[in-house]
Design brief:
This protein has 19 helices and 22 strands. The protein is α/β, with parallel strands linked by helices. It has a seven-stranded mixed beta sheet with strand order 11-10-12-13-15-14-20, with helices on both faces. Strands 3-4-2-5-6-7 form a six-stranded mixed beta sheet. Strands 17-19-18-21-22 form a five-stranded mixed beta sheet, with helices on both faces. Helix 8 links the parallel strand 10 and strand 11. This is 2-oxoacid:acceptor oxidoreductase subunit alpha. It comes from Candidatus Accumulibacter phosphatis. Keywords: Oxidoreductase. Pfam families: POR (PF01558), POR_N (PF01855).
Length: 612
C-alpha cells in the first residue's frame, strides 16, 4: 500500500470533544515542533458551546514556512466517535489514522488505502488512574507521547513546555511527564514506524509566535490608547482582555501606582461605542473591540461619529453571519457592513491586516488615522488571525514617533484671532480644525450635533449647507487615500494575462497557491489590498489584466461589490471566487479554482481567436 513519506512537511489533525482538555495537549505538539526550528501553523476549530460538541485542532508543519491551510490531512488523530466517518474521509490516500483501539474497530469503519494505528489509550488510562477527570486529561498526554515517538518529536522539548506551564506545581509537572513517558514507551514497543518525521532545523529565525488579538491589543497600547470600552463577544473578547493585561504593566504611573487608562466593560455594544465616542470627543484615544453582531448594534453611534467627525477605532474580529451566525467560525463577512455602517450616506476607512504583525501595526496606525481624519476607522481582522497563533515578524516600534493628533486649534491660535469654524475646510483636504473641551474660556466652543449644520456648527436645514458638508466629507475621504496603507504587489516571474486580488487572512494560503501554480506554468500577478478607500494603484492593476480573480471568504463577494461601487471598475473584468464554510481558506482550494478558471478562459479566448 502507498505510504505518505515526508520530513517537515505534513498536516496532522486532531479530532476531539470540546471540554476534554485536548486543545492544550494538541498545542504541545505544535509548540514542540516549533522549538525544533520547524515552522508550524496551528488552528483550533471549536464549537460555540462549553463542552460536548466536536472540536478539531489542525497543525500545518512545513519548513518552507507556509502558514496558511494547505488542505487535506496526512495524519488524523481520531478521538471522537461522533465524527469518526467524517474524520476518516479527510485522510489523504497513504496517510495515517491514529485512534484508541480499546474497543475493536469494525473493518467497515475504516479504509483500505490508509494506514491504521491503534493504541489502547482508554485501557492504559484506566489501569493507571482512578479519577475520571485524570483519565481524560492524561489520555491526551499519553497520545502526545506516542506521537512524539512516531514523528520523532524531541520529548525533551515537550518536557520543557511542561516545566514552564507547571512552574511551582511539581506534582502536576511530574504527573504529566510520567503520562508522556507512558505513551512514548508504548509506541516504542508496540507501534510500527510511519513515514512522517520531524527533523530539527533552523527555519524559524527571529519570528515570534502570537495571535492577532493579542497583537492588536499591544498595538493599541503603543498607539496611545487610554480608553477601551467593550462588551464581550466571540471572537473579539481577548482583544480587550489582552489590553487589560498589558495596561496593568505598561499604563501604571511608577510614582503613584495609579492606572493611567480606563477599561470599561459596558452593558452592551451600543453603550461601549458611545463611551468610545465620548472619550474621543474629549481628547482621549479610545477604541472598542467587537464582531459583526456588535457592529450592527453600534451603527447609530458610528453614524454620529462620522457626521459629527469624532475619532473612533473599532477592531472588528469577523465571524460567520448573518444574525448571530457562527460565533466560532471565521469569515470576511463584514466588509460592506463596515464600509457603509450606519444610515444615510457614509463611507468609513477600513484596514485589512494579514497577520498578527499587521494587527499590531494597523491598530496603532488606526488611532493616528482616526484623529487625523476625525472619523471612525475599522481594523478588519477575523477569527483565523485573531484567535490562532501565527509566526510573524517581531513587532517594531520607534519611540521617537509622535502621535498624529490631526488638526487641533490651540488657545494661542484662537487668541490671535484665527477664524474657527468647526466644520470649515480651510486647507482644501476636507478636514476641519477641532478644539478640545476647555481649550479657551470664550472662544473655540461649538455645539456637537448629529443633525445638519453649517461650517460653524450652527443648526441648519438649508439644502446648500447639507450639500456643502457632504461634499467636504467626500473630499476628506479622498484625502484618506493618501494616508492609508498602499496595496502590496507580488509580481509573477513571467508576464501574466491574469491576476488575483485578495486581502486579510487569505494571504498565507494565497502565497503558497501562487508558488504551486507557477510550478505548473500558470503565472499570476497578485495584489493584496490593505485598506479602503482604494488607491489608484488598485484601479491601474485591474486595468492592466484581462481578468482579475477576487478571492473572498464570504458568500456575497463583498470586496468585489466595493471595487465596482467605489473604484469604478468594470464588473466584467472581475471574477469573484468565494469560500465561506467557516473554515480558513486553503492553498489547494485557491490553486484548483485558479487552474480551472484559467483553463476555461484560455479555451474561450482560443475560440474567439478562431472566430475572428
Amino acid at each position: 500500500m502507498q505510504k505518505i513519506e515526508a520530513v517537515n512537511d505534513f498536516v496532522i489533525k486532531f479530532a476531539n470533544i470540546n471540554g476534554s482538555g485536548s486543545a492544550s495537549a494538541n498545542e504541545l505538539v505544535a509548540r514542540a515542533i516549533l522549538r525544533m526550528g520547524v515552522p508550524v501553523s496551528p488552528r483550533n476549530i471549536f464549537p460555540s458551546n462549553i463542552q460536548g460538541l466536536p472540536t478539531w485542532f489542525e497543525v500545518r508543519v512545513t519548513e518552507r514556512g507556509y502558514l496558511g491551510r494547505r488542505g487535506g490531512v496526512d495524519m488524523m488523530v481520531a478521538m471522537n466517535p461522533q465524527t469518526w466517518d467524517q474524520d476518516v474521509r479527510e485522510v489523504e490516500t497513504g496517510g495515517y489514522l491514529f485512534y484508541d483501539n480499546s474497543r475493536p474497530l469494525p473493518r467497515s469503519r475504516s479504509r483500505d488505502d490508509i494506514h491504521v494505528i491503534g493504541m489502547p489509550l482508554t485501557e492504559l488510562c484506566n489501569n493507571a488512574y482512578s479519577d475520571p477527570r485524570q483519565r481524560q486529561l492524561f489520555k491526551n498526554i499519553i497520545y502526545v507521547g506516542a506521537l512524539a515517538h512516531l514523528l520523532d518529536i524531541e520529548a525533551s522539548e515537550i518536557e520543557k513546555l511542561f516545566a514552564q506551564q507547571f512552574k511551582g506545581k511539581e506534582k502536576l509537572l511530574d504527573a504529566n511527564v510520567q503520562a508522556l513517558a507512558v505513551g512514548r514507551e508504548y509506541a516504542r514497543e508496540h507501534l510500527k514506524p510511519i513515514g512522517l518525521k520531524v527533523e530539527r532545523r533552523d527555519k524559524v529565525g527571529d519570528h515570534i509566535f502570537v495571535d492577532g488579538n493579542t497583537a492588536a491589543a499591544l498595538g493599541c497600547v503603543y498607539g496611545g490608547a487610554t480608553v477601551c470600552a467593550w462588551y464581550p463577544i466571540t471572537p473579539s473578547s481577548s482583544v480587550a482582555e489582552a489590553f487589560i493585561r498589558f495596561t496593568q504593566k505598561l499604563r501604571v504611573d511608577p510614582a503613584t501606582g495609579q492606572q493611567r487608562c480606563a477599561v470599561v466593560q459596558a452593558e452592551d455594544e451600543l453603550a461601549s461605542i458611545g463611551m468610545v465616542v465620548g472619550a474621543s470627543w474629549n481628547g482621549a484615544r479610545a477604541f472598542t473591540a467587537t464582531s459583526g453582531p456588535g457592529i450592527s448594534l453600534m451603527s447609530e453611534f458610528i453614524g454620529l461619529a462620522y457626521f459629527a467627525e469624532i475619532p473612533a477605532v473599532l477592531i472588528n474580529v469577523q465571524r460567520g453571519g448573518p444574525s448571530t451566525g457562527m460565533p466560532t467560525r471565521t469569515q470576511q463577512s463584514d466588509i460592506l457592513a463596515c464600509a457603509y455602517a450606519s444610515h444615510g450616506d457614509t463611507r468609513h476607512v477600513l484596514l485589512f491586516p494579514e497577520d498578527p504583525y499587521e494587527c499590531f501595526e494597523m491598530s496603532a496606525q488606526a488611532l493616528d488615522l482616526a484623529e487625523r481624519l476625525q472619523t471612525p476607522v475599522f481594523v478588519m481582522s477575523d477569527l483565523d488571525i485573531g484567535m490562532n497563533q501565527r509566526l510573524c515578524r517581531p513587532f517594531a516600534w520607534d519611540d521617537s514617533v509622535e502621535y498624529d493628533r490631526g488638526k487641533v486649534m490651540t488657545r494661542d491660535a484662537l487668541d490671535a484671532g484665527t477664524d474657527f469654524g468647526r466644520y470649515l475646510d480651510v486647507d482644501g483636504d476636507g478636514i476641519p480644525y477641532r478644539t478640545y473641551p476647555g481649550t479657551h474660556p470664550t472662544r473655540g466652543g461649538y455645539f456637537t450635533r448629529g443633525t445638519t449644520k453649517n461650517a460653524y456648527a450652527a443648526y441648519s436645514e438649508a439644502g446648500t449647507d447639507y450639500v456643502e458638508n457632504m461634499q467636504r466629507l467626500l473630499r476628506k475621504f479622498e484625502t484618506a487615500k493618501s494616508l492609508v496603507p498602499l496595496p502590496v504587489l507580488t509580481a509573477a516571474r513571467h508576464p501574466a494575462r491574469f491576476a488575483v486580488i485578495f486581502y486579510g487572512s487569505t494571504s498565507p494560503s494565497m502565497h503558497e497557491a501562487l508558488d504551486a501554480l507557477a510550478e505548473h506554468g500558470i503565472y499570476i500577478n497578485a495584489l493584496r489590498i490593505r485598506a479602503f478607500p482604494f488607491q489608484d494603484e488598485i484601479v491601474d492593476f485591474i486595468a492592466a489584466h484581462s481578468k482579475v480573480f477576487v478571492f473572498e471568504q464570504n458568500l456575497d463577494g463583498q470586496l468585489t461589490t466595493l471595487l465596482i461601487n467605489e473604484a469604478g471598475v468594470r464588473p466584467a473584468s472581475l471574477v469573484t471566487v468565494v469560500h465561506y464554510d467557516g473554515t480558513p481558506i486553503t492553498a489547494r482550494f485557491i490553486t484548483r479554482e485558479i487552474s480551472d478558471r484559467v483553463a476555461r478562459l484560455n479555451v474561450h479566448s482560443l475560440k474567439e481567436d478562431r472566430v475572428a
